[in-house]
Design brief:
By secondary structure, the protein is an alpha/beta fold. Helix content is 46%, strand content 18%. The strands form four sheets. The chain has a five-stranded mixed β-sheet with strand order 4-3-5-12-6, with helices on both faces. Belongs to the LysR transcriptional regulatory family.
Length: 314
């Protein structure tokens, strides 16, 4: 199709809103109720958009509608456009209120426990009115959010393969993954240190799909072992920590978690093959605000302290 058809004035923002809502609700009735418009208005919007694009966007089913392959492509871009507009409105509002754009940071266990909190504390000392949103998620979720401009940067374990081409990575330091248990865990008292020795304990593992989980699965395989029979999949630090302290569970975690908690300790079990690079992932195809750049500078400063004070290469 001729891409100029998208800019001849026939396709409007209301079409994007109507079409994405229809996809989310799965029916004309549901979309009409959410948007408080008539069903004919939804039908008309679909026909108008399909006329511009010259393809069918939805398949009509007995109980609703489903996007076609063409529709899925268009809807992905439509959601990005709408999200960018919402972000622009939020940024304008924030700039009017406090004189600075808000910062949105994605993170995972490796970044959330020490590195990012230290940087945020330092940021708030100099810019107390700056709004900062922290979103914790799996790498795949954070990669999608970064691509859609829902977050400005990601702080945590680096996973270049999980991000699309438009991402730039800054490696800050290496943080080993260690087996973390409570201080009085039986494995500590019995000096059980090999992976085979630990197989009968409950294991807390990151969920799939994550780079860390893939590497741990490969580690079990290389040791000639299957997966532990008793597994909890969890990446939320508060839940994970409570389970570790209250049970005989063990968890492969970033070293800082085990080193910085008085109720936890680390086994000497070798996990050398598990990735350990910690850093910042940023979009390569758009510029960052001054507020986001200030946070990045503070993250780099905090990383220098962490790398200096902890034996991360052991």
């Amino acid at each position: 199709m001729d891409s100029q058809r998208l800019f001849d004035g026939r396709l409007k923002i209301r079409h994007l809103v109507l079409l994405t809502t229809l996809a989310d609700e799965g029916s004309m009735v549901g979309a009409a109720e959410v948007l408080r418009v008539t069903q004919p208005a939804i039908t008309r919007a679909v026909r108008e958009a399909e006329a511009v694009l010259e393809v069918s966007l939805f398949d009509r089913k007995p109980r609703g509608v489903l996007p076609t392959q063409f529709g899925e492509i268009f809807l992905e871009s439509a959601r990005t456009v709408l999200n960018n507009l919402r972000n622009a409105a939020d940024h304008i509002d924030e700039l009017q209120r406090v004189g600075a754009r808000p910062v949105r940071v994605g993170t995972n266990l490796a970044g959330a426990y020490s590195l990012l909190p230290q940087a945020l504390v330092a940021l708030k000392k100099t810019q107390p009115n700056l709004s900062v949103s922290v979103i914790e998620g799996l790498p795949e979720e954070l990669a999608t959010s970064l691509a859609r401009d829902e977050i400005d940067l990601v702080v945590g374990r680096l996973d270049p393969s999980g991000f699309r081409n438009g991402a730039h990575h800054i490696r800050l330091y290496d943080e080993p993954v260690r087996i973390v248990v409570r201080q009085d865990h039986p494995a500590v008292q019995r000096h059980e240190q090999s992976i085979e020795d630990l197989m009968d304990y409950p294991w807390i593992l990151p969920g799939r799909p994550t780079q860390l989980r893939d590497e741990l699965d490969e580690l079990f395989s290389r040791e000639g072992l299957g997966l532990p029979h008793n597994i909890i999949e969890c990446s939320t630090i508060l839940t994970l920590r409570s389970i570790l302290i209250g049970t005989d569970a063990i968890a492969p975690l970033p070293m800082l978690i085990g080193a910085g908690d008085e109720q936890l300790t680390m086994l000497t079990t070798s996990l050398e093959t598990v990735p350990r690079s910690i850093g910042i992932t940023m979009p390569a195809d758009r510029s960052l605000s001054a507020s986001a750049r200030s946070l990045i500078d503070l993250i780099v400063d905090a990383a220098r302290v962490i790398a200096r004070d902890l034996p991360l290469d052991e």
